[in-house]
Automatic annotation (TrEMBL):
Residues 613-709 form the Methionyl/Valyl/Leucyl/Isoleucyl-tRNA synthetase anticodon-binding domain. Residues 32-55 are annotated as: Disordered. This is Valine--tRNA ligase. It holds the Pfam family Anticodon_1. Belongs to the class-I aminoacyl-tRNA synthetase family. One of its GO terms (molecular function) is valine-tRNA ligase activity. It is an enzyme of class 6 (ligase). GO terms for biological process: valyl-tRNA aminoacylation.
Length: 711
């Protein structure tokens, strides 16, 4: 053995050996509880019924976006999930980690459009089919790179079941779910206020709008008998009422009378509504149902007209001529100037408030009135909360359950249609003659179901990417291998980042319960962010990015893996630096050198174990017990710190030193302790442990060896 563990010489070869051996595929009984026969199933490693009665352990990998290389955040989730998968595999459980990639909708199209812009091109230069194919080719290239990076990190997922959110069989299931929801009256097409980004050219759900706090001007305007306060004077041309609180005694005598919109001298009714906050501004609100969600709600209650003065291009329309074609920001400046000249601007003051912005362009979202496809969520939310109440699905960290409940309790009907090319096109067909829609499970109808006309065209919109990925757990298992869904669903755990609890986790529970009648996973394990050594969020703009591929090349995958689980609970943010990773490389070398010392002379001499031998065996057993308990309760940081203490200090610093004068007598104990230590370390540091295991001359790979039994 070399003096130093040369990870570059081992990692790729070891991974290839694992993958070719079928070690990543679940060992499933030929028949499990009489439910099915797997004798003809593809991709399953079969074993006799009597070899296991253990429940399967399953994780569906959160599919990385097929549009970029893996970043350090991906490393954390991959490491956490791989540790759990390797541990349960060694426990003898039928273990499945199903990998995949996400087409990622607007995320990918946005990245691709930036690439086009660098080439002096735009999405508008291409027809729909050409643009789609270009993005497809780009995504397939990025997906291939991403999967190579997963392998470099040691991800022991079952590549024979690899899925993509745009696989035809996945799309078929998404269509089936959409049709069922429609038939059950849960899908409707209607006009409502939607969150629209004029720069992206598409709508977003309420969850995708990034709320930022900023300082703006609050304008107090003269509306005749009443004054109002607003941050958006440019939309006064779409006002249809002024609303006050019914409890506000100041305005009791004005309800039912008329206010006058300045600059256009339009009379609008003064109404009372409980949604008005009497403490905001003057306590009177201009009601603009076409450009504000709360105003739209008030307008619906009072049967008010909804007018629009901003179009899909983000330009002013239906206004006096001087404002036509302006951006809203420019129109605001011009409107305020005109209000001053007309004597209708009473005062201004600063306001610190929350503003919805596009999470890609960071520009303000325009609330617009537009006809879209919506999913009614009330009944789905009720079933999801009921499942959580009954503990059918549990959040390992309670604080994240509170976050999920908060989102459920505030969820409105979900706008699931997007105005982009990249994604799953909605299977809705519009009739030119009667204007009605025909919904299918993907196939084109021969004629309109309403009037029998053959003049029908498919909707150009695509599904919100979270609508399709919300079906990921059952869609993957229903399409991967025959019998997978019946055996592995519901899955054991969903491990993901806390920032997508509202985007993805709650949607998976909703759609999983609706489509299958069961929760998609029993436990939700949320991990925190990876931050730099100062605790700052890692980002390109801060210049503190840690490139995982460079770290693997320099220090090895084992060192990087240890770095992202060391020192903090899974659910907590973790600080990481190159120094941390280098320190874990030193630990990998320590393991290698311990083995090198033990294996340099394998001469044995029969003798009774002495006190030192008995002590190290006792401490090994205690360590195995603690590590097992920590892994069972997802306390990975405690497990690695326990192992580090045992291997570096108790084994290397103390016991090895004491055996130097009695090597032959201690050799059997040394090798036994080394083997059991390698097993305990393997889920965390798979490459160096497998490399040492091979040096021991063991016939079976370490990856499939049994976990140490702690009494």
């Amino acid at each position: 053995m070399d003096k130093v563990f040369q990870h570059q010489q081992f990692e790729a070869k070891i991974y290839e050996k694992w993958e070719k051996s079928g070690a990543f595929q679940p060992k499933i009984p030929i028949a499990q509880s009489g439910r099915r026969s797997l004798s003809k199933a593809k991709g399953l490693t079969k074993q006799p019924d009597n070899q296991t009665t253990k429940q399967p352990f399953t994780i569906i990998m959160p599919p990385p976006n097929a549009n970029e290389d893996l970043h350090i955040g991906h490393v954390r989730f991959v490491t956490i999930e791989d540790i759990l998968i390797r541990y349960h595999r060694m426990r003898g459980e039928p273990t499945l980690w199903l990998p995949g990639a996400d087409h990622a909708g607007i995320e990918t199209q946005y990245v691709f459009e930036k690439k086009l812009a660098e080439e002096g091109k735009s999405r508008f230069d291409f027809d729909r089919e050409t643009l789609y194919q270009m993005i497809w080719d780009y995504s397939m290239e990025k997906r291939k790179n991403m999967e190579s990076q997963l392998r470099a990190l040691g991800a022991s997922c079952d590549w024979t079941r690899n899925k993509f959110t745009l696989d035809p069989d996945i799309i078929k299931i998404v269509y089936r779910t959409f049709k069922k929801l429609y038939d059950d009256g849960l899908i409707y097409r209607g006009k409502s206020i939607v969150n629209y980004c004029p720069y992206c050219g598409t709508t977003f759900s309420q969850l995708e709008v990034e709320t930022v706090e900023r300082d703006d001007e609050l304008y107090y305007l003269d509306y005749g008998p009443i004054s109002i306060a607003t941050t958006r004077p440019e939309t006064i041309f779409a006002d249809v009422a002024v609303a006050v609180s019914p409890k506000d005694k100041r305005y009791k005598g004005l309800v039912g009378k008329k206010a006058v919109v300045p600059l256009i001298n339009k009379e609008v009714p003064i109404i009372a509504d409980d949604l008005v906050d009497p403490k905001f501004g003057t306590g009177a609100l201009k009601i603009t149902p076409g450009h504000d969600a709360a105003d739209f709600e008030i307008g619906q209650r009072h049967q008010l007209e909804a007018l629009s003065v901003i179009n899909l291009a983000g330009r002013m329309v239906n206004t006096p001529e001087k404002y036509l074609g302006m951006r809203p920001e420019a129109a605001r400046v011009e409107t305020v100037t005109d209000l001053k000249e007309a004597g209708k601007l009473k005062k201004t003051e600063n306001i610190h408030h929350a503003v919805g912005t596009c999470y890609k362009h960071k520009k303000p979202i325009e609330p617009l009135l537009w006809e879209q496809w919506f999913l009614k969520v009330e009944s789905l939310v009720k079933k999801s909360l009921d499942a959580m109440d009954k503990r059918q699905v549990k959040f390992v960290a309670k604080r994240f359950e509170k976050i999920a409940r908060h989102w459920y309790e505030n969820l409105r009907d979900w706008n699931i249609s997007r105005q982009i090319v990249w994604g799953i096109r909605i299977p809705a067909w519009h009739c030119e003659d009667c204007g009605k829609w025909t919904i299918t499970a993907g196939e084109k109808p021969q004629k309109c179901l309403e009037c029998s006309s053959t003049k029908i065209t498919q909707d150009t919109d695509t599904f919100d990417t979270w609508f399709s990925s919300g079906q990921w757990p059952f869609a993957t298992l229903q399409t991967a291998e025959k019998g997978d869904f019946e055996y592995f669903y519901p899955t054991s755990a969903m491990e993901t980042a806390y920032d997508i609890i509202p985007f993805w986790v709650i949607r998976m529970i909703m759609l999983g319960l609706y489509e299958t009648g069961k929760v998609p996973f029993h436990e939700v394990l949320i991990h925190g962010l990876v931050r730099d050594k100062e605790g700052h969020k890692i980002s390109k703009s801060k210049g503190n990015v840690i490139d995982p591929l460079i770290m693997v090349e320099r220090y090895g995958a084992d060192a990087l893996r240890m770095g992202v689980v060391w020192g903090a609970k899974i659910e907590s943010d973790i600080s990481l630096s190159e120094e941390n990773i280098r320190g874990q490389r030193n630990f990998a070398n320590k393991i290698w050198n311990i083995a090198r010392f033990i294996l340099m002379d394998r001469t044995t001499k029969k003798s009774q174990p002495n006190a030192d031998d008995r002590l190290i065996l006792k401490e090994l057993e205690a360590t195995a017990k603690k590590v097992t308990k920590s892994l069972d309760t997802y306390r990975l940081n405690e497990a690695v710190e326990e192992l580090y203490e045992f291997v570096w200090h108790k084994l290397a610093d103390i016991y090895l030193e004491k055996t130097k004068t009695r090597r032959a007598e201690a050799q059997e104990t040394l090798e036994s302790v080394l083997k059991e230590s390698l097993k305990l370390l393997h889920p965390f540091m798979p490459f160096v442990t497998e490399a040492v295991w091979n040096e021991l001359g063991e016939k079976e790979s370490l990856i499939t060896s049994p976990w140490p039994q702690a009494s």
